[in-house]
Structures are given as C-alpha cells and as structure tokens.
Design brief:
The protein is of the alpha+beta class and 231 residues long. It is 19% helix and 26% strand. It has six helices and 14 strands. The chain binds uracil.
Length: 231
Amino acid sequence: MRLIRLVANLGYGSQKDVRAMIRDGRVTLADGTPLKGEAQVAPEDVRIDGEPLDPGPGLVLMLNKPVGYTCSTSDPGRIVYELLPPRFLRRNPVVAPVGRLDRDTTGLLLMTDDGALLHRLTSPRHHVPKVYEVTLARPLDGSETELFASGALMLRSESTPLAPAVLEATGSHTARLTITEGRYHQVKRMFAATGNHVENLHRAGLGGLELGGLPEGTWRLLTPDEVAGLR
Ligand code: URA
C-alpha cells in the first residue's frame, strides 16, 4: 500500500494531512531519511516524528474499562475511545468494541479492527466464556446456581432460553458468573429474574484472557500468542 494511504488509514490524518506531514519531513525511515509519498515501504520501517507507526490491521487490544464510559463512537458522555490514542477512532478499518459493557460495568473490554475475529468472539455459536464478578443488593438465596445452569431460564421478552451458565458464590452478596452469550444487559437481567439486583458488575475474563494487573482506565495490545488463542 502507498505510504500516504497506509498512514491515513491508521488515523494519523486525512490523505491531505499526511501529504503535508511528508512535505514537512516528519515521515521517515528509522535512520531519519525522509520518505516520499509514493514510497513502498514496510510499515515497521516507517517513523512519524521519530516514533514507530501504530500496529496495522489485525490490531487487538484489551482495555480495563472504568465506570462512566460508554462503548460507543459517539455519545454525549464519555466514550471508551477517550482512553485510547485519539487516532484510533479514525482508523480504517475501524477499531470496534468486541461486544459491549454497560456504562456502569467495569473491566475487560477487547477492541479490534478484525471483523472476522469480532464476529467469532461475539457469536453465541462459539460459546466464548465471559467471566463476571457480581455484587448484589440482596444475599444469594442458593437457588441461582441450579437455575442458571439449567439452560431453561427465559428472560422477559425473549423467545429462547439462556444457555447454561456457571455461578460460583464468593460471599453472601458476591459471585462469579460465567456466561457464553452476550444478550442485552444479560447478567443484570439474570439476577433480576431471581428477584435480586446487581449493584456492581465487573468483567474479569473473556475467552481465557484475564485483566491481570492492567490498571483501570489503561489498555495494552494483546500478544501474538493471546490473539492466536482467541482465533
Ligand atoms: N451483562 C450486563 O448486564 N451488563 C454488562 O455490561 C455485561 C453483561
């Protein structure tokens, strides 16, 4: 791909902006040699203002989402893209959240520009496990584990029952719940069906990945091995 389009697609600016960056000598090889717009170079050899280019298509990142951010590209409030470099919102193909977390849910959010991977991870057919830590308004009553595991729980206004889910109580008001679907407000509605109310919801894992020590509000790229594991 020509340099101008390559850099523009990574969100550094419009093709016109990138032409201006090239004219100003800001786009170079690692040794500082300025590049011309028609150059055919491997992305890993390009520097902008001396910095390596962002990863190209196939990017997969993990974000530790705080409360108050929406998984959306446009919202009157704060959006998860504010936690990433601003140019990530302008990339082509777009970097999109893999499923959504509610504004008041915290934890592991994957984002990628790989449409096939996104589809694989969000399709209920692939049973990708998602692990949530839940804090409840009222104590667990002991019936939830069997109900959630039954594969027969029908949420209000839905026509198919939920796939079996695994609940492990971790305290009187806390639990870890593993589900393999991603229906609208699924975890909150599951507990609402038992007469309870979710006060805090945190996603700790997805597809075998865990947040580890990733600080809240920060992100990191997945390693090639982690991406291979997801595929
Ligand atoms: N289930 C919910 O109810 N909310 C989330 O954010 C994720 C799963």
